[in-house]
């Protein structure tokens, strides 16, 4: 049976690429080749941008309510097809079916929020700011925008981007990860079925050449990126130098602080779930647990809880930890575990080479826990992006805050405590974008903004929420004065005042 090819979406049509460069889309649990994805040619990249540019004037002038209705239809289509989306996502990405459904659902919430565009895009108005003068602002779309998305959330992160950009009147070129492109293409198909006019959304595939083409193309006005530090820094610099707006959400090393007064069972469950869910392939995963005071005695119970997690294929029932995305990722995680041992950390739980009977060729690494971790160790400095938890013990909350703030990343953090005073001190003094209080992965709901900081973010505006409305629109300020026919002309005024 021939292997299917992933299409490009250009100007409303799903087309076969003319490229000579292809990559296999591989099931990470079985190594089965699911499809072949093209690396779009330079002409195909240009055609996608040109289609978006042609579509922009009419889409910009489409009434807000009409744009919103398209996304009302899209959210219903996503709901109707969530099982197919989740199953495809699990097959090509590896995460558990339940986690894949959550991936789709968190993206769906952003689509639902996009339907509120009627209030999101409101400007401001001040009457009679000077003699007969009114001032007001308009939030107008930029034009062609683009998004570059990572492998770990192939539904949620594309849905962070194109629905908000498009509902605000922009057109869009999406470049999803070449490692799991089938889920984004299903979403693109649903968007077409929902009534997006041709050219409003275009999807291309590729590697570095496609990324650079997006950064360089003069007709692209803004780029949204989520992914690794290296690629994100490159996109931010190259895109900014080309005069574009760029938001880049990068890597993380999220710390969670555990106070001895916290609800121990709830805290341990939260830590283990946040550290090992999605095989640790989340930018908001808790990869460092900071145990304060007597909480250091919890280490055996943390290890015991982690041992209970089931490592298996993502489509199998009751699976907790699926495979990593590819063999290179598995080898990298295993090499970092070896480095942790070599540098003197205590390996409390070794997840290397787990036995997964039905999937002997899968990219599996089981839950792995180190204690006695020091800031100078490789496993602490590197974003492992795998199911590896580093445990640090300190005596006081002040020490926990200092350690967390000394780390260069600032994506998210959390504290577990029953003390309001401790929680308030933590939220005020910690230097991270998202803060959880007894919440391990504090990703905000879509009407708030995702606000990573420091080494986890480049650009001043985050994805979704109020900040992304600002990112995808240009504020135009209008100052107006009207005269009736009986107004007597006065003398010429050469001063700056309007009075």
UniProtKB/TrEMBL annotation:
Transmembrane feature ranges: none
EC number(s) on file: 1.2.1.27
A Pfam family: Aldedh
A GO molecular function held by the record: oxidoreductase activity
Keywords annotated in UniProt: NAD, Oxidoreductase
Signal peptide start and end residues: none
Gene3D superfamilies registered for this protein in UniProt: Aldehyde Dehydrogenase, Chain A, domain 1, Aldehyde Dehydrogenase, Chain A, domain 2
Aldehyde dehydrogenase domain: residues covered: 14-478
InterPro entries in alphabetical order: Ald_DH/histidinol_DH, Ald_DH_C, Ald_DH_CS_CYS, Ald_DH_N, Aldehyde_DH_dom, MeMal-semiAld_DH
PROSITE patterns: ALDEHYDE_DEHYDR_CYS (PS00070)
Family assignment from sequence similarity: Belongs to the aldehyde dehydrogenase family.
Protein name: methylmalonate-semialdehyde dehydrogenase (CoA acylating)
Annotated organism of origin: Parachitinimonas caeni
Taxonomic classification: Bacteria, Pseudomonadati, Pseudomonadota, Betaproteobacteria, Neisseriales
